[in-house]
Design brief:
The protein has a domain of 115 residues: Jelly Rolls (Sandwich). The chain is 51% helix and 23% strand. A 4-stranded antiparallel β-sheet has the order 1-8-3-6. A 4-stranded antiparallel β-sheet has the order 2-7-4-5. A hairpin with a 2-residue loop joins strand 4 and strand 5. The chain is elongated and about 55 Å long.
Length: 187
Amino acid sequence: MEKLTDQLRRWYALTPEMEAALQQSFSRLIFNRNDYLAREGRVCRDLYFIDSGAARGFYHLDGREITHWFSWENDFVTSFHSFITEQPAVENIQLLEGSVLWGIQKDKLMELLDRFQEMERLLRKAYESYYIRLEERFVNAQFKTAAERYEELLLDSPHVLERASLGQVASYLGMSQETLSRIRGKS
């Protein structure tokens, strides 16, 4: 729980009462590689914090898996659209490796929001972090070449190549595995 509270403290000073309530509301969860946190067609009712491990979000399209994000230690993950709207998810969230997470159910989070006004700020920071990653992903997909996207990945997140399959990385970068192999060969 230390990593979670450290992350939250970076965003806002936690009162002892609020920290105690957070510790009571989050549950420590251990998952295996390839376990799912969310599945398309099901409502996602939990918000997770990755203590250790890695996850990816992906869609199914024409029989293929399209990876659209990766998350690592100290990231919050959920199917945000499903979590917020309480509608069935259109994405899947799968763990890339054995992982330790801290999870909170939406109803418990809502109780914390009602009890502690400061929780609004913490939740907003988690949403802002997600939005920034989403916008960066959109800009990369729209305005950068495949080679530029790969180079940026190497600069910003070189560990992706060690922790995700080449097929998942290629999908994330919006290219075929063959194109990724060619670009890697030139680097």
